[in-house]
Write a structure and sequence with these properties.
3 domains, Serine Threonine Protein Phosphatase 5, Tetratricopeptide repeat, alpha+beta, about 50% helix
Length: about 240
């Protein structure tokens, strides 16, 4: 995992290219903190690019931050499931049979790759049907639209159905990675709640619900509980 990608694809503007090249140069010279900082600036600016995540993962790996290395290899695969260097990076971190590197059910669901723009598309469609509904009701007052009532019911049903799908996408389980050594799964969202199970650094979990500073997660073995959000990294945007 010493290789970095020197060519940055599909990133707009010279500023992005400059940060990428700065990160690559710092990584090559073993200035890992500088490399991480350069790549993280790209990520925080909204760049979603498999080579960026891969290079960032390599920098974290050589800085002995296994949790964030796993996280960014997973982000690279979320952007491009066929990005083999990231898959090989994950394989090199630990045996695939170990619990902390097993995948929870649906962790790399293809739907997760498209959830961001699907939510936008669905809400845009909801708004379209919503205004169509009011347009039909308004025009029906002048008897301009025949069969106004059935059309209004169809528009209303479409609004309810599509809004439900958009809400399910927004609130459905999202992939996450445990970042901190010594993290624990608790029965409730409070440090005073009893411990249910230890969590390993780099362990993949499904994030089911966020409540303040806590997240309810499911492990690869089906255990459910709460973990502090600061100990958890999100694979899909927003990255916090």
């Amino acid at each position: 995992m010493s290789m970095v990608f020197a060519v940055l694809l599909c990133l707009p503007g010279n500023v992005y290219q400059d940060f990428f090249e700065q990160g690559n140069a710092a990584y090559t010279e073993n200035h890992l903190d500088d490399a991480v900082q350069a790549y993280e600036r790209l990520v925080s600016s909204g760049v979603k690019n498999a080579p960026v995540f891969y290079n960032l993962a390599n920098a974290y790996y050589h800085a002995d931050d296994v949790g964030r290395a796993v996280l960014n290899y997973e982000r690279a695969l979320a952007v491009d499931p066929n990005f083999d260097p990231a898959a090989r990076g994950l394989e090199a971190l630990a045996p695939s049979s170990s619990r902390e590197h097993a995948l929870p059910t649906g962790f790399r669901s293809p739907m997760g790759r498209y959830s961001e723009w699907l939510r936008v598309l669905l809400w845009a469609t909801v708004l379209t049907f919503w205004w169509l509904l009011w347009g039909i009701l308004l025009l029906s007052q002048w008897r301009i639209v025949p069969c106004a009532r059935p059309l209004a019911l169809v528009a209303l049903g479409s609004v309810v159905l599509l809004a439900g799908i958009a809400y399910a996408l927004a609130t459905g389980p999202q992939p996450g990675v445990i970042l901190a050594e010594g993290s624990s799964l608790r029965y409730g969202p409070d440090v005073r709640d009893a411990l249910r199970s230890p969590l390993r650094i780099g362990e993949r979990v499904n994030v089911e619900h966020i409540e303040g500073a806590w997240a309810r997660v499911e492990t690869s073995t089906g255990l459910r509980g709460w973990v502090a959000r600061e100990q958890l990294g999100a694979v899909n945007p927003p990255f916090h």
